[in-house]
Predict the 3D structure of the following.
Amino acid sequence: MPDLDETHDPGRKSWVASANAADSDFPIQNLPFGVFSRDTGTPRVCVAIGDQVLDLTFLEELGILTPAGSDRVFHTGTLNPFMALGPEKWTAARRGIARLLDADTPLLRDDARLCEVALVSQADVRMHLPFTVAGYTDFYASREHATNVGSMFRAPDNALLPNWLHIPIGYNGRASTVVVSGTDIRRPLGQLKGPQDDAPHLGPSAKLDFELELGAVVGQPSAMGQPITTAQAEQMMFGYVLLNDWSARDIQVWEYQPLGPFGSKAFGTTISPWIVTRDALAPFRVPTPERVKQLLPYLDEATPGNIDLQLEVDLRPDGAEPVTIAQTNAKYLYYSAAQQLTHHALTGCAMQVGDLLGSGTISGPDPESRGSLLELSWNGRDPVRVGDRTRTFLQDGDSVILRGWCEGEYRIGFGTCEGTILPATRMPSDP
Amino acid sequence: MPDLDETHDPGRKSWVASANAADSDFPIQNLPFGVFSRDTGTPRVCVAIGDQVLDLTFLEELGILTPAGSDRVFHTGTLNPFMALGPEKWTAARRGIARLLDADTPLLRDDARLCEVALVSQADVRMHLPFTVAGYTDFYASREHATNVGSMFRAPDNALLPNWLHIPIGYNGRASTVVVSGTDIRRPLGQLKGPQDDAPHLGPSAKLDFELELGAVVGQPSAMGQPITTAQAEQMMFGYVLLNDWSARDIQVWEYQPLGPFGSKAFGTTISPWIVTRDALAPFRVPTPERVKQLLPYLDEATPGNIDLQLEVDLRPDGAEPVTIAQTNAKYLYYSAAQQLTHHALTGCAMQVGDLLGSGTISGPDPESRGSLLELSWNGRDPVRVGDRTRTFLQDGDSVILRGWCEGEYRIGFGTCEGTILPATRMPSDP
């Protein structure tokens, strides 16, 4: 766990006034990294500060912020080169950015011409995928979620499979369809077969769902053939994003045996545009829940592995007001991101800069804290009230908006992770 | 299926004499693409011709072979930029290379100084991974393999799950550990739990296995949210490699429910260094086996989807002679690579230049045609004779060598795909 330092001082203020509002997701103690562009310009690396973005690509060009000395790392429109520098440089860069934005630092504050280029309103920029996703792995780390799903599809007294309390269960997902918040998601076609059908048919999914997850961004590689410790895994973690693992439950139930989910989860995964750094989250670390069974020693953690991160799902039916349909917390996860990463590398799987680890759906102990419509509607049995409408699964035009924030002496927000469902397409025919 | 043209003329000879030997894997009708380096030099793109490689990076620099006109595609040490050009350019480049190597073409043949740089003995080069693997997906497309595995772990009368005859079942694998032939493979550590054990323990896999597969290399992308037809899928296919999907059966059996194989198959996947093009394989295309159940129309193919490709597995125990332990054929695959790719994109999964699709273990109808030790030894029950030794699973120091070739009026060989097992490492401990 990173040390607390002046970047965590709750009394610190920024000369960017909007960052000092108590309800801002992006105070000077946060400084999440992202990639933005203006109009038709090329993507540039930035941090969020209040309602503005600070253009790090520009500051590096000027020599004001040079995390890699004479080399450039902010010029490719993706955070991967910066992440490759490693945790000491991440911490140093964060300290440098905080100093530049500190209320007492005149360098940018008093230079209107410099500020005009370096600082842009978030309302005027387009956010991009903040890093090139090397590999996307999705875990299944919430005991409540695994228990709910197991209860629905097997039986409540046999809900958790025998391996679940020993292994951070996960599977490889599809990196090519990880997209940034705001990207529309097309309802997938797939093979569908009801329990009474003789054979499957082709059609659009009728059980389209979201999954509220936390995404961990791996910023350092590991070597093929070489396991890592949880302490090493913790050091490899650059930061976290909100993640929506869109899922087609009816396609999934027909395809997933014996090799796991495939097309039912490959049509889109949405992440929030801001990577909130491990450093910024240091004051909000909490231990994982009490172990039901003792873990093997390679999964032991010397420092608290979880994050006390409040999470919320809003559903906005086409043309209506958004309604909050679930509230939960990332602290419920049974396995931390460092445990997931350690297990991932155990057999010798090489980890890469830019790997993304989804936590799996985060559900809590209460019915309102379930992180998917599958659970909220109990597979369609109990329609969910959304204002004056109801939903069992998602309809075309529905938007799902995830939010997350840590609340203490200040607020570390994740911004939003949003996507809207487009109607299914037809199968193409050959010319 | 590509048209047959002068590049398929069985009477054609090359001025590279070794290419005209009847047993050469690499006659002028083949011309598989790869990436090589000399000594400490940088990786360069090439084709195999007889026992030589032809340096395409050099020929592009000279302006002798320019598939992208004034742009360069052979300068990055990987085939991805060339693949991105699309099938018309692939075919044109292949024709151009065949002309350069034709016995009647003097340009290189009669220029000893040029040849000295352009042509290098395969014995003097190191081969590299021929392309950057964007995503690695592993299918399960052999009915015989799926039936064998189902018979072992469920029951012979219930061997195939209900979805298998309708869906080309597959799962996302791990791209970061796809390595080129000749790379050593370290025996993985993992969680192991015998049926009688109360709890799992950590240890090296005792059931380390190979899987004989055909790898299809996707050379063209598809858009997110957009399904493709089998005809489009066929056009997107650049070529094929041999593939060994190393598997730890004891880790797999404990981890794989409910989300599929993970660490048990993530520690290494070996491919042969030469991508044999779809064009070169055109004369050897054969239909997939008769359908047991009618497929949904989106999987229908207008042209023969399979390849009549003979396959062989040699096992070389440490210090001993190699022994052939399995012989089979890629024509047994129930689902073609184009069907696999079409199904992959069905839900809207974006495909990328450099995606690699493993066929799944290729087993045939006979006991000798089984493509894994799991099947050959029937999960350890029937030890396999390897010269004067026996094997149930792989031991440290064992090498596995895959070979493949099409045989007709000439031979289109795939070369070899080889890997050697290193002993397991220990878990690291924190400093």
In short: Chain B has two domains: 6-127, 135-422. The domain at 135-422 of chain B is CATH 3.90.850.10 (Fumarylacetoacetate hydrolase; domain 2). The longest helix of chain B spans residues 87-101. Chain B has eleven helices and 26 strands.
